[in-house]
C-alpha cells in the first residue's frame, strides 16, 4: 500500500496497448502520491517514482487536463533564482467520496475530498435498540442528502460504509453483525439500489480503521500495524508488509472472539469467555457501574479525571485489554498497535496498566519493537478509512474513474 512506483514504457517494440497500460499505471501512481501528500514538487515525484522529468511533466499535464490537480510556483520563489520545481496540488473541488460509520447507537456521514479531509459531515444519534437494515438505509439517505447540501461538496463518486460486522468483501453482504443483530443481510445490494450511480463499498469498521490509521493517522510510514477498535464489540484490522490483510472473504480480525476466559460470561456470538466479554463496551460500563447502552457517554466520561473506585475498576479492564493485545503481538509481531474507539479512551486513561497487561503476556522478542498508540485520524479512523477505501479504488485508474462527466450527467446533477 505504501510502495508506489512508476513503470517505464516499453521500447519501440512494445504494443500500443501495453504503453497505454503503463501510462494508466503511472497516472495512478502520481495521483495517489499527490492525494496522500497534499502537495509535492515535480522533482520529488520524479525521484519517488524513478521516472524521467519529461514523463512526469506529461503525466502531470494529463492530470491537470482531467481537472484533478493544479500546479503552482512554490511560495517564496523569486524570479531569476534558477527554476524552482513546480508544486503539484490536488484539486480539492474536483471530486468527493462519501464515508459512513454505522454503529449500534450512532451513524456518522462525511464527504471526503481528493487530497484528504472532510468538507462536511452529519451525525444521527439512534435510540430504541439496534437499527434494522431498513432503518440504517433510511438514516443514510437523510444524512447523505444533508451532506450534499453543503456548497463545498462537489461531484460525489462513491459511498463507503463501515459496519461492526463480518462483511463479504466482494459484494457487501453482511454475514453476521452480533451487536446490530443482523444475520445474512444483502446490505451492499440494498445500498446500490438506494444510491444508484455511486460506487459502493461496505466493509468491517476495524479493517477500515486500520487503513485510515495507516494512511492518515498514527500508522503513517508503518508497514506492520494492528488497529484494535472497541465499541460495543471489539474487532481488529491488520496492515502487514504494507498491505491490508482481510482473509479469503474479508472476515479476518474478529479478535473480540478470542477466548480469554473460558469460565467467563457467554458472548453474543454464543461462545463463553470471549475477549469482548471482558473489554467490550458493556463490560467496561459494568466495571465502572455505568449503564450498558451508553458507550458514547462512557467514552466521554473516561476523558475526564475518574474517582478512585472507578480508576481501580478501569485498571482491571485495562490489564485485560493489554493481555489481549499481548496475544496479538505474539501472533503478528507488529511495529505499532493502535487502539481506537472506546479502547483508545481506556488506553489514554490507564496506559500503564494496558502496557503492563501486554508485557505480562507477550514474548520478549515480540516486545522489542512494538509501540502502543492511540488512534490519530481526524475525526475518526473508521470514517477516514471508509473514505480512503473508495479513493484506493478510484485512484487505480484516474483516467477512467475521474474523467469529467458527460454534459448530460452534469445537467442531471446540477
Ligand atoms: Zn464471542
Task: Outline the structure in words.
- The model is unreliable at 409-414 (pLDDT under 50).
- The chain starts with 15 loop residues before the first helix and ends with a helix.
- The chain has 16 helices and 16 strands.
- It has helices spanning 16-37, 42-49, 53-66, 133-148, 187-194, 205-216, 276-279, 281-287, 295-302, 308-332, 342-349, 351-361, 364-367, 381-394, 398-401, 407-413; strands at 40-41, 69-72, 87-90, 96-102, 106-113, 118-125, 156-163, 166-168, 173-177, 182-185, 199-204, 225-230, 234-240, 243-245, 336-341, 371-374.
- It has 414 residues and is an alpha/beta fold.
- It is globular.
- Helix 10 runs parallel beside helix 12.
- Strand 8 (166-168) and strand 9 (173-177) form a beta hairpin.
- Helix content is 42%, strand content 21%.
- The structure holds zinc ion.
- Zinc ion binds at residues 257, 267, 269, 271, 274, 276.
Amino acid at each position: 500500500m505504501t510502495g508506489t512506483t512508476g513503470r517505464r514504457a516499453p521500447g519501440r517494440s512494445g504494443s500500443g496497448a501495453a504503453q497505454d497500460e503503463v501510462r494508466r499505471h503511472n497516472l495512478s501512481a502520481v495521483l495517489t502520491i499527490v492525494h496522500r501528500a497534499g502537495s509535492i514538487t515535480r522533482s520529488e515525484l520524479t525521484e519517488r517514482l524513478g521516472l524521467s522529468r519529461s514523463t512526469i511533466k506529461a503525466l502531470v499535464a494529463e492530470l491537470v487536463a482531467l481537472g484533478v490537480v493544479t500546479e503552482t510556483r512554490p511560495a517564496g520563489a523569486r524570479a531569476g533564482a534558477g527554476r524552482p520545481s513546480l508544486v503539484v496540488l490536488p484539486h480539492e473541488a474536483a471530486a468527493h467520496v462519501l464515508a459512513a460509520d454505522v454503529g449500534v447507537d450512532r451513524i456518522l456521514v462525511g464527504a471526503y475530498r481528493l487530497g484528504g479531509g472532510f468538507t462536511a459531515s452529519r451525525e444521527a444519534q439512534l435510540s430504541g435498540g439496534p437499527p434494522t437494515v431498513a432503518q440504517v438505509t433510511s438514516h443514510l439517505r437523510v444524512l447523505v442528502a444533508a451532506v450534499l447540501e453543503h456548497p463545498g461538496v462537489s461531484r460525489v463518486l462513491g459511498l463507503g460504509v463501515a459496519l461492526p460486522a463480518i462483511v463479504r468483501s466482494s459484494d457487501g453482504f453482511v454475514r453476521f453483525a452480533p451487536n446490530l443483530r443482523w444475520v445474512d443481510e444483502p446490505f451492499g445490494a440494498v445500498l446500490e439500489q438506494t444510491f444508484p450511480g455511486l460506487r459502493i463499498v461496505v466493509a468491517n469498521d476495524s479493517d477500515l480503521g486500520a487503513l485510515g490509521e495507516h494512511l492518515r493517522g498514527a500508522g503513517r510510514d508503518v508497514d506492520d500495524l494492528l488497529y484494535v477498535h472497541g465499541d460495543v464489540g471489539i474487532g481488529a484490522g491488520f496492515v502487514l508488509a504494507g498491505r491490508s490483510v482481510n482473509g479469503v472473504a474479508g472476515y479476518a480480525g474478529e479478535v473480540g472472539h478470542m477466548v480469554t476466559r473460558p469460565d467467563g460470561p457467554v458472548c453474543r456470538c454464543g461462545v463463553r469467555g470471549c475477549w469482548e466479554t471482558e473489554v467490550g463496551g458493556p463490560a467496561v460500563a459494568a466495571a465502572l457501574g455505568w449503564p450498558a447502552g451508553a458507550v458514547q457517554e462512557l467514552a466521554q466520561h473516561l476523558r475526564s479525571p475518574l474517582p478512585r473506585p472507578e480508576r481501580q475498576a478501569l485498571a482491571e479492564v485495562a490489564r485485560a485489554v493489554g493481555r489481549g493485545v499481548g496475544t496479538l503481538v505474539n501472533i503478528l509481531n507488529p511495529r505499532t498497535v493502535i487502539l481506537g474507539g472506546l479502547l483508545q479512551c481506556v488506553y489514554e486513561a490507564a496506559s500503564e496498566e494496558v502496557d503492563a497487561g501486554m508485557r505480562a503476556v507477550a514474548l520478549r522478542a515480540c516486545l522489542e519493537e512494538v509501540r502502543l498508540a492511540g488512534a490519530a485520524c481526524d475525526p475518526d479512523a473508521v470514517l477516514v478509512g471508509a473514505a480512503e477505501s473508495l479513493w484506493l479504488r478510484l485512484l487505480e485508474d484516474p483516467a477512467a474513474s475521474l474523467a469529467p462527466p458527460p454534459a448530460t450527467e452534469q445537467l442531471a446533477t446540477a
